Amino acid sequence: MLTNMRKGSGAVSIKQIAAEAGVSMMTVSRVLRSQSNVAAATEKKIQAIADRLGYKPNRLVRGMQSGRSGIVSVVMPAGHAIAPTILEGIYDSLHETDRILALDIVHGSVGARAIADQSKVINRLLESRVDGFILLPVNEDASPLYFKEVVDRKIPLVLVDRNTTHFEADFVGTDDFHGGAEAARLLAANGCRRVILISTGDHVSTSRLRAQGFREAARKHGLELVKEVMAPSFDHNSELIDAELGGLKGKFDGIFGIADRLAISAWHTCWSLNLEIPCEVKIVGFGALNLRDPRVAITTFDQQPYAIGRRAAELLVSRIEKGPWKRRPKAKTLLNRPCLVEGTSCAIPASFSKLD
Asked: Can you give the pTM of this predicted structure?
């Protein structure tokens, strides 16, 4: 038997709690919103009464009072490798602040259709009175007009994982340039001299920055860039990599794939060419995606996607709490340093951390 269940079927009100506690409704409201400065004993008493009566805040009323819905919209492309873990970090952080996550998925990770779909999703969500957006852009080809209505309505926006050069917004992601540079430094530390870079070009910031970092560090460490293979996507692209590497057998001793799937395809190609890994060819990937089969253990970089999600949510909530801006605040960029994860495709020398 539930002895503390209150009589009647109506919802418990702040007025009832205030009457039993012998305080004003305003005091109860502030305590329940964790915004009071009353004595600890009074706060404890009010909270105990609310718990006993089974008080639950009315989100609709609270939203009308505050001008906020308590809903944060997250828009991500389907099939993106680290999106689920980023989403987990976002959810955990928002849950701690009693906010609701509204997720929408865009089919396709790159291309004009994906841009159109993501724009349509954002426009639809704007009609739902969300307090803010966390967005993983499909690529950098989107015009600034893509975000115009979000900005015009003064709705906080945080981009994750992929940044854009065409629009200035808060961004939380990985230091991709540093990761690419570290990949070149690691191959050089393993004695490599002639290397291949496998990227997806410049249509997303992750590929562009990792490739830039790799090229610059390769020059610094005396590595010859034998070939840059340009894949159309982050998928395995096995046939393309087979064709490109097959004509270069014996002309390279190191490979950097800007995504793990590309690095794994390179591993399989080298195996088919009878190139022994890591003795003849060293391979480094990026992402730490746990895509390994029993034969493949790629040395790679962990992007810490859960931390990216949490930091993005925390940044967005701080923007929301400050309220609508008179002048748009200066955009913040928060980057996680990628962490090397050693596999069997390229060793991490004991002295590596001491190198310049």
From this structure: 0.78
